[in-house]
Amino acid sequence: MCTILIPAYEPDERLLKLIEQLKKMSNYRILIVDDGSGEAYRPIFDTAAAVGCTVLRHPVNRGKGRALKTGFQHLIEIGETRGVVCADSDGQHLPVDIQRIASALQKSGSSLVIGSRHFTGKVPFRSKFGNTATRLVYSFTTGTKIHDTQTGLRGYSSGLLKWLCQIPGERFEYEMNLLLEAARQGCRIEEIFIDTVYLDDNKSSHFRPLADSVRVYLPLILFSASSILSALLDFVLLLLLRGIGGSLAVSVIGARACSSIFNYTMNRKYVFGSRQNKAKVYSSLPKYFALVIAVLVLNLGLMYLYNEWIGIPLIAAKLLTEASLFLFSYWAQRKYVY
């Protein structure tokens, strides 16, 4: 039977109730990571240890992503071979649904199984809105549709444990980064629909709407910043080349050649991960510049359409063209280049 991993920060009696119910259902190994909850919560963790759970502790709060990695690293060290199911400590994941994920992980052969919530009935607005937004962002950036990108109920095969420890992110952004990386590597994701449980309007959640949302959407934010800087460089060079008498085609191509080199360097290093070795660079570089050529053709075509045929002024035509190609470029780089 696989291990149940529960990251916990300042839990209440619901954690102990979940443990009791899980133990009645099957002889699960239960691993709990106390993410710096403090002395006031030690009795709860001591009780969990007394009934047979393994409890690991962080001296200070380090975030859900780090707590999960601590658990994964422990499972690697003890030689876990049957996989792990991650669940939250606040009672939002029913024991029967945890068991369903564990069974699917063992039977289906999938390396990644997630419990997706239906989001029916009375759902807190911030939870429904947040999941809808991240679902749309994830679908757009990866080309893969997942109904619930924010679920904490997930099952992983033991073969993924080392990979899970390498995913960037220390807090709530870790789980989104994980799904993004899984899609990039072509990992098959199996979804199983589970009940949606919100207690006290989800007040027990430690998700910080502003700070953690920024972390979740950071890849898109960084991509936007890189694109804006590249667009500014491209814009200035276009005006300079056009101003000294270059044709529209020469000006567009020259400006794009310089700005694309800058954009590739920024995206490879800061947006889509700085861990690429030389082999990966050699792989991504030709794909990136193939995309540059495709975007350049589209860019040139749109510039001629807006500036030469319709008669829109050069600056306005340039801005309209870049806006038209921004989302396409992000999707293509995430999906095919990096």
Automatic annotation (TrEMBL):
Enzyme Commission number(s): 2.4.-.-
- Pfam annotation, one family: Glycos_transf_2
* Keyword Nucleus (UniProt): no
Query: What CDD domains does its record include?
Result: DPM_DPG-synthase_like
Would I find Iron among this entry's keywords? Answer: no
For this UniProt record, give its keywords in alphabetical order, as a comma-separated list: Glycosyltransferase, Membrane, Transferase, Transmembrane, Transmembrane helix
Signal peptide residue numbers: none
Give its localization. Membrane
Show where the Glycosyltransferase 2-like domain sits.
3-156
Transmembrane portions of the chain: 216-241, 247-267, 288-306, 312-332
| InterPro entries in the cross-refs | Glyco_trans_2-like, GtrA_DPMS_TM, Nucleotide-diphossugar_trans
Q: Name one GO molecular function term.
A: glycosyltransferase activity
Task: Name all GtrA/DPMS transmembrane domain ranges.
Answer: 223-337
UniProt membrane topology term: Multi-pass membrane protein
**Superkingdom:** Bacteria
Q: Which PANTHER family match?
A: DOLICHOL-PHOSPHATE MANNOSYLTRANSFERASE, GLYCOSYL TRANSFERASE
**In its UniProt entry, what is this protein called?**
Glycosyltransferase
Q: Which organism is it from?
A: Paenibacillus puldeungensis
Q: What lineage is on file? A: Bacteria, Bacillati, Bacillota, Bacilli, Bacillales
